[in-house]
Backbone:
């Protein structure tokens, strides 16, 4: 059945092993982030088989899925919890990233045993966390809870603001931990590999939370293929449902397209175009790279993907399957779409 995502578990396994080796050399704990695959137990298995103990995810449902697949704690909740579902988070996970004092108190009330809390510190990316210069004041009064045990601080960059790790923003988080006398410092995600490679990862960092590098071999924030990891771990396949020669510029007065966008078209004359049975509901078309050389994704609506195949060497016909490499956002959406079949190799 098409469309489908073909996932190469062997490649992902090799990526996990390689990353673990690199992190181990520096005595950094590798936390495996499963959210891209919606907590698929096969991915959980790949991490655990290769020595990654703590599995991290952002969704309660994904932890349930992993448990049904036979996996159990240590689990880390990496999206700061919502009050309305805090009980579930405390029940299902034993490591929680937190950014509000009230939540720490509530966890302490709810929990039956010790929960490891990492308090989020914002070092400039401006997603979650207390700003680094206010962190000590906010965290200090929270250190004495018995069950909601703050074991360390955590931070991320590259998530909202696209900020890269730097000597400076790493020093900020290290300073906070030192002032609070906390042993653990957790950083994520993938983009922090740049700090290891660049030789500016402080020795105080004890943990890295990594998903993308292991699962795709890429670093979206750093905008690169990671040279010591494997890519094309995931390939999207979709079927051609129309193949015709058409002008490259739409005819007539133009409004917005179905997604409220104003599409721009370059006049390249008459082109051979394939329509594939997949659309914006299933994938982020900007994140698709055709594996057929010369093919170019032109545009997509909810259910139709238009690919210019004029310059492709093989003669693409009705019913043919085209293959694509998917970036993080295209993979995320394809995995989430119930219309895309998932096939695991290895
Ligand atoms: C998604 C996420 C990660 C992992 O990021 P990758 O770029 O996929 O490695 C780590 N920490 C937090 C808080 C996240 O939300």
Residues:
């Amino acid at each position: 059945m098409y469309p489908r995502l073909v996932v190469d578990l062997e490649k992902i396994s090799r990526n996990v092993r390689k990353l673990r080796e690199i992190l181990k050399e520096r005595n950094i704990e590798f936390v495996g982030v499963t959210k891209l695959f919606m907590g698929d137990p096969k991915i959980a298995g790949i991490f655990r088989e290769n020595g990654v103990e703590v599995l991290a995810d952002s969704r309660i449902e994904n932890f349930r899925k992993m448990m049904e697949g036979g996996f159990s704690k240590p689990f880390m909740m990496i999206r700061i919890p919502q009050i309305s579902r805090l009980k579930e988070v405390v029940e299902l996970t034993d490591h929680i990233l937190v950014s509000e004092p009230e939540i720490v108190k509530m966890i302490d009330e709810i929990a039956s045993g010790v929960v490891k809390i990492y308090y989020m510190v914002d070092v400039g990316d401006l997603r979650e966390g207390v700003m680094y210069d206010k962190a000590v004041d906010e965290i200090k009064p929270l250190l004495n809870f018995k069950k909601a045990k703050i074991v360390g601080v955590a931070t991320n960059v590259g998530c909202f603001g696209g900020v890269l790790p730097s000597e400076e923003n790493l020093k900020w988080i290290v300073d906070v931990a030192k002032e609070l006398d906390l042993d653990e410092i957790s950083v994520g995600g993938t983009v922090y590999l740049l700090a290891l490679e660049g030789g500016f990862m402080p020795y105080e960092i004890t943990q890295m939370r990594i998903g993308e590098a292991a699962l795709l071999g890429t670093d979206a924030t750093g905008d690169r293929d990671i040279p010591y990891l494997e890519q094309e771990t995931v390939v999207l396949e979709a079927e051609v449902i129309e193949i015709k020669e058409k002008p490259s510029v739409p005819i007539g007065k133009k409004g917005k397209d179905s997604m409220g966008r104003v599409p721009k078209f370059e006049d390249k004359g008459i082109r051979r175009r394939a329509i594939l049975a997949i659309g914006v509901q299933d994938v982020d078309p900007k994140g698709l790279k055709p594996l057929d050389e010369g093919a170019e994704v032109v545009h997509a609506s909810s259910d139709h993907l238009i690919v210019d195949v004029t310059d492709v060497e093989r003669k693409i016909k009705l019913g043919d399957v085209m293959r694509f490499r998917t970036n993080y956002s295209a993979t995320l959406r394809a995995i989430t779409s119930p219309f895309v079949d998932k096939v695991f190799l290895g």
Summary: The radius of gyration is 23 Å. Residues 208 and 280 are 32 Å apart (CA to CA). The chain has a mean pLDDT of 97. The longest helix spans residues 9-25.
